[in-house]
Design brief:
Blueprint lengths: L1 E14 L3 E8 L3 E7 L18 E7 L6 E9 L2 H4 L2 H17 L9 H13 L4 H15 L19 E5 L4 E4 L10 E2 L2 H12 L12 H18 L5 H25 L1
Antiparallel strand pairs: 1-2, 1-4, 2-3, 4-5, 6-7, 6-8
Helix pairs in contact: 2-3, 2-4, 2-7, 3-4, 4-5, 4-6
Length: 261
């Protein structure tokens, strides 16, 4: 049976000398793996459409085993991502997050749209770190670990403003409940509102978001702890991002030292 699906490439694995197994995330079927025969050959018709982050219309034959790719027609290639190591790193993080948190052949409402829209935002020059944090928040619902961001996670009060985020209580704490978790992350009201806004953000309405570096670091630190506690996945792309950030910090220090001489 031939099937046609719009999909984005999550990853590829070499299979034999000339073939690839391509993991796609489709609009209708969620995540599926297909065999692209001869995709490693320089003149293969599948070479372009099996690159990371490519969005295409894929035609594949669904038999009793692994589906076999029959045709692919490119829709988007996101060239700016491919040419920028930082954008590539964040795009890799986002697609790996989707890959780790979804099951094969299971439909996930809106995830395909989130993924493609995130690639567009990265490609168009939006802050990659903020796009990654938005994706972190949105994928928590898919992972079954949605935090309580609409009221106090301890007492349920919607009247008192949040003053902290608790990993233990899985959400915001009000000023009266803050003492229940000594390890909770303290928050200003503006940061709490930002977290809530990012969680509910419509990617179609995503515009330029300017956030202080200190706030971005706080969000990353907080969400890393939360994922470790409730999701428990290890991402190779996250380790690479840490290495990139460390390199940037070292280069910044080197530049400052040079200026002071």
């Amino acid at each position: 049976m031939l099937k046609k699906q719009e999909a984005i490439v999550l990853k590829t694995i070499d299979y034999g000398e000339t073939n690839k197994i391509v993991t796609l995330f489709t609009r209708d079927q969620g995540k599926i793996a297909v065999l692209a025969k001869g995709a490693k050959k320089p003149n293969s018709q599948y070479r372009a459409v099996t690159q990371p982050f490519v969005v295409a219309q894929f035609l594949f034959y669904q038999g009793s085993g692994l589906p076999s790719l029959s045709q692919g027609e490119t829709i988007y290639t996101f060239k700016e991502i491919q040419l920028d190591i930082v954008k590539t790193a964040y795009a890799s993080y986002i697609v790996e997050l989707v890959d780790k948190l979804t099951e094969e052949k299971k439909s996930y409402f809106l995830v395909y749209d989130w993924l493609v829209l995130a690639m567009h935002q990265l490609n168009n020059g939006q802050d990659p770190e903020m796009i990654a944090r938005i994706f972190d928040l949105k994928m928590l619902g898919i992972a079954g670990a949605k935090p309580q961001l609409d009221c106090c996670a301890s007492c349920g009060s919607q009247e008192r403003d949040p003053v902290a985020f608790s990993v233990t209580y899985a959400g915001f704490l009000c000023n009266l409940c803050r003492i229940k978790d000594e390890r909770a992350f303290p928050l200003t009201l503006s940061v709490a509102k930002l977290i809530r806004a990012l969680y509910y953000l419509d990617f179609n309405k995503f515009g330029t978001i300017t956030v202080k570096d200190a706030t971005k670091q706080q969000l990353n630190h907080m969400l890393t702890f939360y994922y470790d506690e409730y999701v428990g996945i290890q991402l190779k792309s996250k380790r690479f991002l840490k290495q990139l950030m460390k390199m940037d910090q070292n280069l910044f220090k080197l530049d400052n030292d040079t200026l002071e001489q």
